[in-house]
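Researcher: Structure prediction, please.
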Amino acid sequence: MKTSDFFYDLPEELIAQTPVEPRNSSRLMILDKNSGEIQHKIFSDLTDYLNENDCLVLNDTRVIPARIFGVKEETGAVVEFLLVAQKENNVWECLCKPGKRAKIGTKFSFGEGKLIGEIVDINEEDGNRFVKFTCEDNIFTVLDEIGSMPLPPYIKEKLKDKERYQTVYSKELGSAAAPTAGLHFTPEMLDKIKKKGVKIAYVTLHVGLGTFRPVKVDDVTKHTMHTEHYIMPQETADIINETKKNGGRVISVGTTSCRTLESVAAKNGCICKDEDDTSIFIYPGFEYKCIDALITNFHLPESTLIMLVSAFAGFDNVMNAYNTAVKEKYRFFSFGDSMFIC
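Model: Predicted structure follows.
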């Protein structure tokens, strides 16, 4: 398949710039992956489409306020740093703008000296810098004080409340972007879902900036996926296996949970406790081994995420659903509306 096959025309005004209030008041498209039938609902209606013995699998990663501005010690020049992934001993891989000011050995001060960073290496392939940070406090505490959320480039509005780019169940620090399908849930809605007899299970996948990296090759199969770290706890594996045994559905909340589940299944031949890195690339032709339904937002044209969704629900069904969403003026991308594919 060609990358251009996954293009759809999206008016810029449909790209959501701010989240809706309350969280579960966003719109919800129900897509039947077998018939292609579409229904238009509100996210709070999702509960009506869940059955006793189903399980929802949520990604409990938490976004780091990873965008910080450093002052170069020698010149006072300001450089923007975006922490992408923690490597070791307070060494982080970072995106730097402008990168030419961040040479090996250069030191930067952040938050008036609350954090000091030194460039210790450069990734020649993509130009990312490896920065060793030192501070008196825990680095995550400092980042929470001086950093801002690394919102996707298509969001131009300033986020008033950092927590609106976190899911209400976020716990494990480590992501450079939010698992946005989960942003629609409220604590009250999750309680209502549990009371219906639906199990809630958690995995962790730390979302990297590769999520926003465009596919630059014409042939989809030639694209190289980014790598992300995941954790599948024993408790979650047990819930999933019990759900399958009882005839319930495993419902993935978001593409990140999906990539975790399918990575574990492909690697081990079953769902079991596991922790590893994954660069799984899911596009039409992929055989799903774990998930039965998917909750997901509307993704960028020609992105790996729309390819993943097309692999699950069928290319024609998904492209029709996206064109319908445009026609019906759904809100798109991270702060946008959602779809339940079942």
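Model: Residues 255-268 form the longest helix (14 residues).
Researcher: Thanks, that helps.
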